[in-house]
TrEMBL record:
GO molecular function annotations of the record: 3-hydroxyisobutyrate dehydrogenase activity; NAD binding; NADP binding
UniProt keyword NAD present: yes
Name of this chain's protein: 3-hydroxyisobutyrate dehydrogenase
Catalyzed reactions: 3-hydroxy-2-methylpropanoate + NAD(+) = 2-methyl-3-oxopropanoate + NADH + H(+)
Record pathway: Amino-acid degradation; L-valine degradation
Catalytic residues of the enzyme: 173
EC numbers: 1.1.1.31
The organism of origin for this protein: Laodelphax striatellus
GO cellular component labels: mitochondrion
Amino acid sequence: CNSTVGFIGLGNMGRHMARNLIKKGFNIVAFDMNKNAAESLCGEERVVIASSIAELSSKVDSLVTMLPDNDSVMQVYSRDDGIIKNAKKGATLIDSSTVDPKVPQTIGPLAEKQGFVFFDAPVSGGVMAAENAQLTFMVGGLENEFRRLDKILTAMGKKSFYCGKYGSGQAAKICNNMILGISMGAVSEGLNLGVRFGLDPKLLTDVINSSSGRCWTSEVYNPVPGILENAPSSKDYQGGFASKLLKKDLSLAVELANRTCSSVPLGNKAFQIYEQICKSQYADRDFSIIYKFLNESKGK
Ligand code: NAD
């Protein structure tokens, strides 16, 4: 495959996703406002680092953005030196960041008017899945154009779901991450309770993973250091999925719940706890640090 894909946002997730596109034969034009992040791809074959978003946009037929939040996505797409003003006619624009559904609901029609095809395509799976091309994509946008994403998404993930019109991919992602935040809290509370009683966390994990408490956070992303060698908890909670990003996703869930008059008491509680974590020194550490946070908050 000789086609060229633009990639904007080479952080914890984006750099692995871009590398998987390279492995599958795509040429990459990459940009990140942080030079160190952009340089993480230097030395790879078939990579050009662009000096601006405008330059990148003018060189590619398809591009992926993997940015932190609403503001960064709105800016990168809509400012004068951004994607919409500078992309090639007919380009495919894929935003894989997690943002409020209002963002793709704004950008989608704007892009359509200018002759582009835009999708919200957030991902689930975490950094390890990004590295192993095992992500799940949840896609919103024009259904009759969905198939044009096949080659790009299969290079980075194992599955993609068409969820509906603009914003539907983000809505699915926000529901998933609200469950993720609640379940990481639940597993961390259970493990911390057991450890304080005197149980061995490895034994307790084995018990849970053979019992009804088993879930992704206990099995694949365990929050106790030393249980899973490759999980962020075993790397001093570095890398992975920052607590401040999960807090953002939980706040998106609470907002979506307000907009749709849905009751989310557990989602609200998880949001409050991650708000507290982000006021501590742990905001940039992986979200499984909630285990350590609970362990250090005696009896509260
Ligand atoms: P990150 O903070 O590690 O990476 C974001 C990158 O975007 C950084 O390198 C930053 O320099 C760059 N950036 C920010 N603003 C920019 C701009 N205006 N122009 C160019 N570059 C800019 O974040 P991440 O963990 O890679 O997550 C990216 C997105 O994916 C977030 O929306 C997050 O919620 C979502 N997500 C993360 C995970 C995870 O496990 N880390 C999993 C699923 C989804």
